[in-house]
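ARCHIVE CARD
Drawer: 12
Card no.: 0347
Subject: one protein chain, sequence and derived structure
Cross-reference: see card 0346
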Amino acid sequence: MRNKILFGNWKMNKTNDEALAFAKVTSSIVSLAKEHHVVLGIAPSYLALETLKMHTEGIIIASQNVHYLDHGAYTGEISIPMLKNIGVNSALVGHSERRTYDNETNEKCHLKIVSLLQNDMVPLYCVGETLEQFNNKLTKKVVEEQIVEGLKDLDVEKMKKVIVAYEPVWSIGTGLNASPEIAIDVISFIRQTIEKMYGKEVSEQVHILYGGSVKPNNIHSYLSSDEIDGALVGGASLEVESFRALLTAII
C-alpha cells in the first residue's frame, strides 16, 4: 500500500528568517506524520533550501525547479550538483506556473526528469489542464500528452521513484476546486496511462497527488480515495498551524 504524501509548495514566499522560524516548530508535526505513515515535503525558495535542510528532520526538502544540465551559461538557473551538494534530492518539474510563465514544455520537463533520475533524485512531475481546455473537454487529451511526453523512455525501476501531481491549472490560486469525482477520474486515468507505458507493477507503485486550492477543510475529501496518494498544497502550507491542520485532516 502506498503511503500518503503531504507536500507544500511555498512558491515565491518566505524569507530565510521566516523559513527558519517555520522549521524550528515542525518537530511535533513530523512526529505525528511518522506515527500515521504520512510522508511530508516542502518546496521552498532556493534561498531557503539549505536552511530547511539544516533545521528539519523527517521532511523531504525539494527545489521548485532545476536545470537538466549540470553546469553552463544559464543565468538564473540552478543545477542538480548544486542541489545535491546541500543535501537536496528532489525537485518539482512542470508546475503550471512554470509552464505558463517560463515556457516549460513537456520536452523540457522530460529532460529534467531524465537528469534527476540519473542522479538518484526524485522528480515531482506536475500535469494539468487550463480552464479553456477543461471547458472544451480536453482534460484527458492534455494530461495524456503531458504524461506520455514527459515520462517517455525512462528506466522502469527509476520510473517507480517518480511522483506525479495532477493540478488543474484553473484551480490553482483561484479558490476553485476540481470536485473529488473529477480528481479521482483524472488520477485514475493517469495511472492507466502509466500502466500502458510501463506495466501494472510500476503504475501501482507510482504516487499520484492532487493539487489545486487544497485547504484543511477539503483535503480529506480528496485523500479519502485510495486512488489519490496525497496532496501538493500551495498557500495553505505556508503557516505551521495550517500545515498541521492539513496533516490532521488526512490521518
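Annotation on reverse: The two ends are 15 Å apart (CA to CA). The chain has a mean pLDDT of 96.
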